[in-house]
Design goal:
The complex is a heterodimer of chains A (430) and B (300). Chain A is built from 18 helices and three strands. Chain A is mainly alpha-helical and 430 residues long. In chain B, 40% of the residues lie in helices and 21% in strands. The chains are: A mainly alpha (430), B alpha/beta (300). At the A-B interface, helix 14 and helix 15 of A face helix 4, strand 6, helix 5 and helix 8 of B.
């Protein structure tokens, strides 16, 4: 090669490598921007939920001085068996408010005054009396939740500068509230009700506990159905089934099932378990079974993938010392595959936990004000609760929707974290 | 370039010759033992002797491709039989027929007869699990179970119920490790994972695992191909000791190794057994041109 030729060659190569460097740099920038855009979306989503929801941590309460008048607890001069249940606690609250604001008169004005306190505040009084029957006949002060509108005002969601007729609280109500605030009778307290109550029509006492328990029962049922069936199916298909046309057909169908829209599983659950099987409507049992159908393909695929990842040399080694095919599977292939199977199962369960559509189809969308006691009780589930609250007109439900979403996200992140931990902890190098 | 290859060939041949010459000096050496016996007759004529294992008209197909063609071979008792030949010639396939490891391969079909002590091992009534307790196997890549050293060796005896109690099992494990020449190195750390050992130790652990079920025959599929020369030398010494108790069949790519460890050698080519005989004869005066070509390094 002559010097001139060598020089030309170097020039061609260096021009080309410059161009290549530019292209590679551009590609790198595309990748980085994609990552940043994804992160930005995630941050926006999470922060908007968190900002909407964090105020649910506290709930505005009003201190009332209550005279536990014996007359309220007695009918015709004596207490009936279930007097605690039947007594008119609202009368006590009304009386207390009237004592506080003696100037307020007239049905209309009084009703506006009474509207400051949650209409479910009577339950608070009842449980106080149930706890301590000696209160009857005495006087005491108690913190009761205020109505959702007052709560919104105190949390700053209701603005005072909008015209009076565009507000849910009029000027006089606000002046009462300001008076109570100035006397330190209104305070924000930790919102235990949100974490211990079931759903309610009154946002100020609506909680997620009913939905959490419902979701828990549903997940238990899902796990009990989906895990054993999925595991066994996966093992059979991967280890024992002869790879013929039929096995391939089953495999393709299972992969397709994993991509079927979840509402279709809901329809299946409705048709098979409710209409044909006659199982109770709205129950975690049916919800769990329906979600199990949806989770099955995920578990089967995870099981097969984990079994497949065990190196064939281990199987050969076991066969070589005379282990039967079942022994090879149970002693050498399954144990190291278990973490992978569990990871897949947890991820499938996390998806089931966040699933709403199938539950709507089988009636778990009903309004349930009680915490379910068993898997056959009517119940709702966390994502459905979010759906229900998001659908409610009251402003107070907005923050509760966001708070419930946060709770659901915490559960999901915990489950996925557990899956990652399992994978890291038991990961084996061959 | 050509001259260089010839030089290498010559060097190879020289070392080979040196080995073969050196071997008969020691009386316990395999070649010496082989020399005392009549050479193994080739092909079907071998019926007269009473071999440990033998194959007759063995054909193996992977789907439509034929991997072995009418293989007739005898495996002599307490001898090391080496199977040599170029890649893809069917020697591993043949080895895996001897303990029916090919059963698990999809699309693999075996015809013909394989006998162990005269019994057909492809008979329907025969339990393949029992067969593999009689014919152990050591693989190309050391593949200890991801369990402790003890468990690796104890697994076989345990599933076959060879030990009545813990003490007997301990005894089997110790003896097997001892025979595999590994006991001294691992006796203080039997509970450590088998995968923590070095490559050569792992392979000896695999040998210990194979002999723990007291097989009659041990099949070795290129057992030293992933080991360094020192570990290889240890395994080769081990084979020489093991053949007193067991019959060994070894597949190897290293012709020096075949020459060092075996008494009989079979040369495979394109699915057929080209030549079989005692190792010294095969390596010094092969009858077939292809054998000659292969062992002198002209092809393969």
């Amino acid at each position: 090669m002559t010097d001139a030729a060598a020089k030309t060659k170097i020039m061609v190569i260096s021009a080309r490598s410059l161009r290549r460097a530019r292209v590679e740099k551009r590609f790198y920038i595309y990748c980085i921007s994609a990552v940043f855009i994804a992160i930005a979306f995630l941050v926006f989503l999470l922060s908007s939920i968190a900002l909407n929801g964090y105020t649910s941590i506290v709930q505005t309460h009003l201190r009332l001085d209550i005279v536990y008048d014996e007359a309220v607890f007695e009918h015709n001069g004596s207490r009936s068996e279930d007097f605690l249940m039947r007594s008119d606690y609202n009368a006590l609250i009304r009386k207390s408010l009237m004592t506080k604001f003696p100037n307020v008169e007239g049905r209309k004005d009084l009703r506006r005054l009474f509207a400051l306190v949650s209409e479910k505040a009577r339950f608070k009084l009842r449980s106080a009396v149930e706890e301590n029957p000696d209160l009857i006949g005495s006087t005491g002060s108690i913190w009761v939740p205020v109505s959702g509108d007052v709560d919104m005002l105190m949390k700053g969601y209701m603005r005072r500068d909008v015209p009076e007729d565009a507000r849910r609280l009029d000027n006089q109500q606000i002046s009462w509230i300001d008076l109570l605030t100035s006397e330190n009778l209104i305070e924000k307290k930790f919102n235990t009700a949100f974490f211990t109550n079931a759903d309610s029509r009154s946002p100020e006492i609506a909680g997620i506990w009913g939905a959490v328990v419902g979701s828990f029962y549903t997940m238990i049922v899902t796990l009990l159905f989906a895990f054993p069936i999925g595991l066994m199916t996966g093992i059979y298909l991967q280890e024992f089934a002869t790879k013929n046309r039929w096995a391939r057909l089953v495999e393709i169908n299972i992969n397709n099932l994993a991509a079927v829209p979840s509402i279709v599983f809901g329809l299946l659950g409705l048709a098979a378990f409710l209409n044909f099987g006659g199982l109770p409507r709205s129950a975690p049992l049916v919800g769990g079974m329906t979600l199990a159908l949806m989770t099955l393909p995920t578990i089967i695929i995870a099981t097969r993938a984990s079994l497949l990842s065990i190196p064939p040399s281990i199987r050969e080694a076991a066969r070589g010392v005379g282990a039967s095919e079942t022994q090879v599977m149970l002693h050498h292939v399954l144990p190291p595959a278990i973490p992978g199977i569990l990871t897949g199962t947890i991820i499938g369960m996390a998806r089931a936990l966040g699933e709403t559509a199938p539950l709507l189809m089988i009636g778990m969308v009903a309004f349930i004000a009680d915490v379910p006691q068993s898997i056959t009780d009517p119940s709702t589930a966390l994502p459905v609760q979010i759906f229900l609250w998001a659908d409610s007109p009251e402003r107070s439900f907005v923050e509760r929707t966001a708070a419930a979403t946060l709770v659901l996200l915490v559960f999901l992140i915990t489950m996925n974290g557990l899956a990652i931990y399992l994978r890291k902890r038991f990961e084996r190098r061959w | 370039m050509g001259t260089m290859a010839q030089q290498i060939d010559k060097k190879k041949q020289d070392t080979l010759d040196a080995r073969l010459v050196r071997k008969p000096i020691s009386t316990s050496s395999p070649s010496a033992a082989a020399n005392e016996e009549s050479p193994l007759p080739t092909g079907a004529e071998a019926v007269a002797a009473t071999p440990k294992m033998s194959t007759r008209k063995l054909n193996v197909f992977y789907d439509d491709k034929q991997a072995l063609i009418n293989v007739d071979l005898d495996i002599r008792k307490n001898k090391v039989t080496a199977l040599i030949g170029p890649s893809g010639c069917g020697k591993s396939t043949f080895l895996r027929c001897l303990n029916r490891m090919n059963d698990t391969i999809e699309g693999c079909r075996v015809t013909g007869k394989v006998t162990l002590d005269g019994q057909d091992i492809y008979e329907k009534s025969l339990d393949v699990v029992e067969l593999r307790a009689e014919i152990g196997m050591v693989f190309q890549k050391p593949n200890p179970f991801p369990k402790s050293i003890y468990e690796n060796v104890a697994y076989g005896p345990r599933i076959h119920g060879l030990a009545k109690n813990r003490a007997e099992l301990d005894e089997i494990v110790m003896t097997s490790l001892e025979r595999a020449g590994l006991l001294k190195e691992v006796q203080d750390r039997l509970q450590e994972p088998g995968t923590s050992l070095s490559g050569g130790q792992q392979q000896r652990l695999c040998i210990a695992r194979a002999i723990a079920v007291s097989p009659e025959v041990i099949l070795m599929d290129e057992p030293c191909s992933s080991l360094d020369p020192i570990a290889t030398a240890r395994i080769e010494e081990l084979m020489d000791e093991l053949r007193r108790k067991y019959t060994i069949v070894i597949v190897t790519h290293a012709m020096q190794q075949a020459a060092r460890v075996s008494q009989y050698t079979a040369f495979f080519h394109l699915g057929e057994v080209v030549e079989v005989g005692d190792t010294a004869t095969i390596f010094t005066s092969p009858k077939d041109e292809r054998t000659q070509g292969y062992i002198t390094g002209r092809f393969g």
